[in-house]
Amino acid sequence: MTHQPSTTVGRDLLSVVPEARFSQGAADRLIYSRDMWPKALLSVRDNKPSVHPPDYIVWPESTEEVAALLRVAGKHRIPVIPYGGGSGVCGGAMATGGGLVLDLKRMNATEEIDLEDHLATFQAGINGQLLEDQLNLRGLTLGHFPASIYISTLGGWLAARSAGQLSSRYGKIEDMVHDLEVVLGDGRVVRCGAAHEPDLMPLFVGSEGTLGVITRATMRVHPLPDFRLFRAYEFPRIAAGCEAMRRVMQRGLRPSVMRLYDEMDTLLARPSGDAHGKKRGGLIESMMGLAPQVGESLGADLKAKLMRAALSRAGMVNRVVESLVPKLSGGCMAILGFEGERPLVEAEAGLCHAEYLAAGGKDLGEGPGIAWYKHRYDVSYKMSPVYHQGAFVDTMEVAATWERLMDMYREVRKALSPLAMVLAHFSHAYPEGCSIYFTFAASAEGRVKSDTLYDEIWRTGLAAVIKAGGTISHHHGVGQAKAAFMQEEHGSAMATYRQVKAVMDPAGILNPGKMGL
Amino acid sequence: MTTPLLDHESIATRLAEIVGATHVSSAPADVDAYGGLDPVLVVWPGAASEVARVLKTCTELGVAVGVSASGTRATRHWPVQDDRLRIALDTRRMLNILEVDELSLTVHSQCGIQLRHLEEAVNRHGLTLGPFPPAVQRHTLGGILAAPHPSAHSPQAGWLTQACMAVSVAQADGTVIHTRVAPRRATGPDISRIYLGSRGALGVITTAVLRLRRQAEHEAVVSFALPDLPAAIDGARAALVRGIRPARLRVLGAEQAARELGQTQPPLPAVVLAVLAGPQAMAAVEQRLLEDTLAEHGATPLPHAVGSRWWARSAVYAEAPEPQPCPIAVRVGYSRVREALEAAPRRIQREAVLTWAEGFSLRGTTLWFALPGATEEPHDLRAALLDAGLDPYRINFPPLLDELRQQLDPAQTLVVMEA
């Protein structure tokens, strides 16, 4: 679906919002032409920052305005791209053929906080950290702490089925939402949620703007914890750490944080293992096994050349690193966190401690956990320098049941190792399975080869995930990045998704080119 | 909409080709069991593929299909507003448990199985569907997923439907869709959820994968008398706010307490019953916190035997010896509990209303009201709750779902089950 801008469309849009909240300006179109999809960073590096810019950007302030804008878009059959913080990493908020960007960030009101029923209602454009701050002032928390929290919005979390770092206690965003207001493609406003039976809310959560624009949400909130505790362990092998996580979750215990780093990722995490804020290494030093001070002493040019050279021979480097890493890292680090009322936390931590020791874990004390908590949002900001130095890095967050999890880990590593340096950590654990967060870094000469390699890595990695019986996304969503795998992910249910789309968005204007629709 | 010129026998013949002649019947003794549906015949498929072929055939023939879940309330249906012939599709042959994954704690089962039989089967692996009230167990798996029951909730395990990880569904056009299993995912809408709670309007759930739990390592059953029902519910709420997650948490008003626990002198104005389950160390801490919390709400611990007798009866499924009062459930936030509790007796103005609460979460609870001896739904109670702006738990078929139905089943072959 490609749109040609026209003055009639602009006039109709301006009948809904004032000029100050409408733009066709080149700078705005450039800014809104991408989200944080790493592939788009390859374009930026190639001085082509805006491949398919939107034609119009509008900043609505109310549900009524969103509805009216969608009616205008429907009348002119303009693609509509709902936009929150633009922090998505799958290209879900990027225009694919011009169209209208609806930036919802002006819809940022905290409408009601119900202390008795533990419910809080917000407009969907509210920033994540501001939302949490509002709740904290009332002694509450949402319990949702994605790494993007400073730059993402509630609507974005819901649209992409986000997960936060404390998900093993509080769940994913779909577990936290009570009620939604959504504007459908034809401008109808619907409410759905726990109070409505049957509940159509799970259709909109995760639909990435393809079925409706989320404008308001009532969230389930929790008392702020009065006590927090961390512990860290080291396992000789990743499988032993996984076994410890499984046992803990299946005993019905609810740590707030459960993370397990493979040997390579332990090297990355270990510089942060200083609870006192000691300087931490960057992604580059970590991936190359260099101490921060060594990395610094190399100088920028040499470091970049070294990194590109290493990453362009990923297969060989992986073999070398795999043989050295166990000696360098000493094993696989695991972090546990707990929060809540002190007696419950202490009892829970004691039981988990026993399980981790029984599975072969060595107690590392609280330091690494405290350090992780202090720097828990840092990793997202380490990626740009890698691009700046001529390589690229991305993450692939997938999940499987425990029965399939280790096979998936091995198969994905095996598939990606010839193409990229790969490291992984296990987080977001549940009684029935767990997510694996693969980080891969690679380098190729020039834009075309970089794009080709980038696509090949994704294709190869996701094919391995599907083959191993996993899901292609745990919490980043699909967007454009994983769209080609939606048929394999959902099989026959994809036809149902299309039928649902025909009802919710009869003109097919909502976020076209995404989700494999 | 009218049925093409077809007689019962030719429909039966077509369906017998799919499921076998012994699994189709038009005998009055068989068809009369399906209540308001008034079918001309009943068909008992044994597999998803057979369900799909039956649906496809019926869609082609213009025959309406009501899905039955073997004698539970789901056999009731919305009145069919046309003169089409109707058949009953009964899933009671679909009893196979396809896989129990002891590592990932999941079970994949056909949907005709009664939950109590599924529970017994997974118990043999040291697993359980969850600490749900025994009344839930008389339902079939397909029935409870298609028409969720308001008591299928535990503070510790959440709603039973939340345990559903994947489904296979036969649709009216004869296609079968399978959703894939994952602990959690972010790959678009959760398609399986449109079938849960949709009363069979969009398809027939043929198999499901459910999350299981390990059977509790330890259970502590406690009971407390409280000054009145609102105080008891306040106390239960306060316990949850502190982070306690009982496997079962049930609050009884005076009349219901006498009914469930026996008469006492003096009568108990309100009772909190709780089962704290899990590792012993956790259960012990939770018990202590619960006792402290309820004491702040005026609770007095009751003798251990009170709770343990209740739990001994409550933990095991058993058919009730006599017809039970038919309750109305209403889900309310804590901010509206007092209003709901006052609404019913004010309107009824007659003998005591049996009242209890279960299904506690941080946000609210499910209140249950019944009139002693009334085995049919007390309509004046429902009216009283509606007058108070409280919506008793029943299907609220939203227009959007109806549009989905038009899309997925344009011939409206599937008849919607009544809540």
Short key terms for the protein model shown above:
heterodimer, A: 517 residues, alpha+beta, Uridine Diphospho-n-acetylenolpyruvylglucosamine Reductase, domain 3, 5-stranded antiparallel sheet, 20% strand, globular, B: 419 residues, Uridine Diphospho-n-acetylenolpyruvylglucosamine Reductase, domain 2, Vanillyl-alcohol Oxidase, Chain A, domain 3, 7-stranded antiparallel sheet, 30% helix
Question: Can you give a write-up of this model?
Answer:
The complex is a heterodimer of chains A (517) and B (419). Chain A is built from 22 helices and 18 strands. With 517 residues, chain A is α+β, with helices and mostly antiparallel strands. Chain A has 3 domains: 7-105, Uridine Diphospho-n-acetylenolpyruvylglucosamine Reductase, domain 2, CATH 3.30.43.10; 107-223, Uridine Diphospho-n-acetylenolpyruvylglucosamine Reductase, domain 3 (2-Layer Sandwich); 227-467, Vanillyl-alcohol Oxidase, Chain A, domain 3, CATH 3.40.462.40. The radius of gyration of chain A is 23 Å and the shape is globular. Chain A starts with 6 loop residues before the first helix and ends in a 13-residue tail after the last helix. With 419 residues, chain B is α+β, with helices and mostly antiparallel strands. Chain B has 3 domains: 8-92 and 408-415, 2-Layer Sandwich (Uridine Diphospho-n-acetylenolpyruvylglucosamine Reductase, domain 2); 97-214, Uridine Diphospho-n-acetylenolpyruvylglucosamine Reductase, domain 3, CATH 3.30.465.10; 218-387, 3-Layer(aba) Sandwich (Vanillyl-alcohol Oxidase, Chain A, domain 3), CATH 3.40.462.40. Chain B is 30% helix and 23% strand. Chain B has 12 helices and 21 strands.
Helix count, DSSP H or I runs of 4 or more residues of chain B? 12
Helix segment tally of chain A: 22
Mean pLDDT of chain A: 91
Q: Globular, elongated, flat, extended or rod-shaped: what is the shape of chain A? A: globular
Tally of individual domains of chain B: 3
CATH topology group of the largest domain in chain A: Vanillyl-alcohol Oxidase, Chain A, domain 3
What fraction strand of chain A? 15-25%
**Ends apart, CA distance between termini of chain B:** 25 Å
Rg value of chain B: 23 Å
Amino- and carboxy-terminal Cα gap of chain A = 12 Å
CATH homologous group name of the largest domain in chain A:
FAD-linked oxidase, cap domain/gating helix
If classified by CATH, what would the architecture of the largest domain in chain A be?
Answer: 3-Layer(aba) Sandwich
CATH class of the largest domain in chain B: Alpha Beta
What is the percent of helical residues of chain A? Answer: 40-55%
Structural class of chain B: alpha+beta
Nearest-angstrom radius of gyration of chain A?
Answer: 23 Å
Strand content of chain B: 15-25%
As laid out across the biggest beta sheet of chain A, the strand order is 15-12-14-13-17-18-16
Mean pLDDT over all positions of chain B:
89
Shape by Cα distribution of chain B = globular
Q: What percentage of residues of chain B falls in helices of 4 or more residues?
A: 25-40%
